[in-house]
Amino acid sequence: MRRWRTHLGWAALLSASVLARTALDWIHPTADFHLRSSISTMTSAGIFVSAAAVAAWRSGSWTDGPIAALVTGLVAAALSTIGVVLLYALRHDPRTLQAIAGSGGLDEALVLPWLVTLPGVLLGVIGGIGGALARAGGRRLAAR
């Protein structure tokens, strides 16, 4: 991994998906979070794996995958924290406060993006191995 800035796009995408889910929960509350949590989990996992695979493919080293996932997760968590605070500042009427409480509370919205980084790094290992293997396989095909 050459620069952390190369992962800024992935981090912005991850943060946007987290903030979209948070806003949806606050603006359109639900009692059944199964579908929303499934979609947001798969989206986040896909972003972590993709960021890691691209980093490993570019470098040829699988170890760049988990590093890319870590940087992506930490930057996204910082951006998400800022976004949640801004969202709360813009919408803190009684109805929204009730929706926030029903969706896990404000502390969950602030802490969860940071906690997701650990499984994101584990997914980064998978993406890193896949990206490095794809690059090695591409080299073998080009050599033929």
Oligomeric nature of the chains: single chain
Low-confidence stretches: none
Major sheet description: none
Total helical elements = 6
Query: What is the percent of helical residues?
Result: over 70%
| Average predicted local confidence, pLDDT | 92
Shape: elongated
Number of strand elements: 0
Instruction: Report, as a whole number of angstroms, the end-to-end distance.
Output: 29 Å
The class by helix and strand makeup works out as: mainly alpha
Q: How many domains comprise the coordinates?
A: 1
Rg computed from alpha carbons, rounded to a whole number of angstroms: 17 Å
The H-and-E topology, N to C, reads as HHHHHH
Beta-strand residue percentage: under 5%
Summarize this structure as a short list of keywords or feature phrases:
144 residues, mainly alpha, 6 helices, 0% strand, elongated
What do these coordinates show?
Helix content is 83%, strand content 0%. The chain has six helices and no strands. The protein has helices spanning 8-27, 34-59, 64-90, 94-102, 106-115, 117-143. The chain is elongated. It has one domain. The protein has 144 residues and is mainly alpha-helical. The longest helix is centred in the middle third of the chain and has 27 residues, at 64-90. The two termini are 29 Å apart.
Strand and helix map with partners:
Blueprint: H1 8-27, H2 34-59, H3 64-90, H4 94-102, H5 106-115, H6 117-143
Helix pairs in contact: 1-2, 1-3, 2-3, 2-6, 3-5, 3-6
